[in-house]
Amino acid sequence: MTASEPWRRRLVAMAGVIGIGMSSGCVNVSAPDKPIEINLNINVKQEVVYRLDGEAKSTIKANPGIF
Question: Phi and psi of 39, rounded to 5°?
């Protein structure tokens, strides 16, 4: 392997990248004529499940004005 081989490989790789870049197409981005409309139909259900131990139940029954 000579000293010039890595330089040649880099040059060939760079030429390939430049060639691919030049042959790629052009991309145009433009705004639509009508406004974008987004419809969100969301149905939210929430269920609350709670359990009280026996002592807490008896405390609530004995003192209904706490809550």
Answer: -105, 125
Question: What is the token pair recorded at 65?
Answer: 């004005």
Q: Collect contacts of 29-33 with beta carbons under 8 A, ≥24 apart.
A: none
What is the rounded distance in angstroms from the CA atom of residue 49 to the CA atom of residue 19?
65
Q: What is the pLDDT of residues 28-41, one digit of tens each?
A: 788 888 998 888 88
pLDDT value at 11 more than 70: yes
Separation of alpha carbons 63 and 31, rounded Å: 65
